[in-house]
Design a protein that fits this description.
8 strands; 8-stranded parallel beta barrel; TIM Barrel; binds dihydroflavine-adenine dinucleotide; single chain; 310 residues; alpha/beta; globular
Length: 310
Amino acid sequence: MFNRALVKVLPAVPRGVVRRVASQYIAGDSLGDAVRVVRALNTAGKLATVDVLGEEVGTAAEAAAFAAEYRAVLERIGAERLDANVSVKLTALGLELGYDLCRENLESVVSAAAERGSFVRIDMEDSTTTDATLALQRALRGAGYENVGVVLQSRLRRSLADTSGLDNVRLCKGIYLEPAEIAHQRDDEVRASFLACLDALLAQGSYVAVATHDEHLIGESLWRIRARGLSRDEYELQMLLGVRAERADELVREGHRLRVYVPYGTHWYEYSLRRLQENPRIAGYVAADTLRRVGRRKDQKGAPGPDSSS
Ligand code: FDA
């Protein structure tokens, strides 16, 4: 209850506090920071997908700059021989400025990835973008790029139907709050929908990236994967940087391919808020941080100033 109330007021939490408590989820400000994190993950037997933080750009120049940054990421991944691909948000590549502009930017990233034998995952944003996201992925596949895949959100009622014909899918619950007409609201419904989508994808032979930290879903998904006799390279598990890292280590030791989502960049605020919403310990973290700040302010007020020394 307290957590839910806190989620509502999260936007009122000072940015400095958000930054501090959300730092576990972000590699850092620069590509160099992301490279260091990815190298450490690779050394620990994990794969990575690199995300340049940012969404909903306002100008074509900003969208082009995001595409250029992604091409730089792909070049660096290749040069450093990292086991990583990239995840993009279409609103950062200009989706809200126009379909064609976004397609051009996306194609430049997907084509740079194809030249290097790499892969581009298109993150799924809120439901206003679902149709365009699926359409753009289909368009690029139609143009001959096989190294691009989308994300389905089991929270959305439409997702089961959307599985049809999709070849390489990251399956997750979906972070965006959506109305009941289009989205399941109860946790048990979201979980049941996740497994129904997974069944449908596996039945049609799609490669699936199972992206969840939910122990129930990890267990049920692995049971289904084993029942179908899939080998190690026919599926993968995915987790977010800073979440359940020890469980990720265990899954790697058990022999699964596991990919960690590694965001970096200076536009960290929106992503951080979304991660904080989901952290079961968020109330404690924010309360402790707020108390620390209040305490500091009191100390400063109580401290003898230059005029009070005599
Ligand atoms: P759930 O939220 O129930 O978490 C299960 C347990 O994991 C919690 O009880 C807690 O222990 C731990 N946990 C989860 N989040 C935590 C946090 N932030 N801090 C600390 N502990 C935490 N969504 C989307 O809409 N579009 C997308 O493209 C993506 N992409 C994506 C990629 C990858 C690799 C992952 C893992 C997730 C996404 N998501 C996403 C987010 C996803 O939709 C979902 O919001 C989160 O994964 C949380 O849901 P879980 O399935 O992990 O379950």
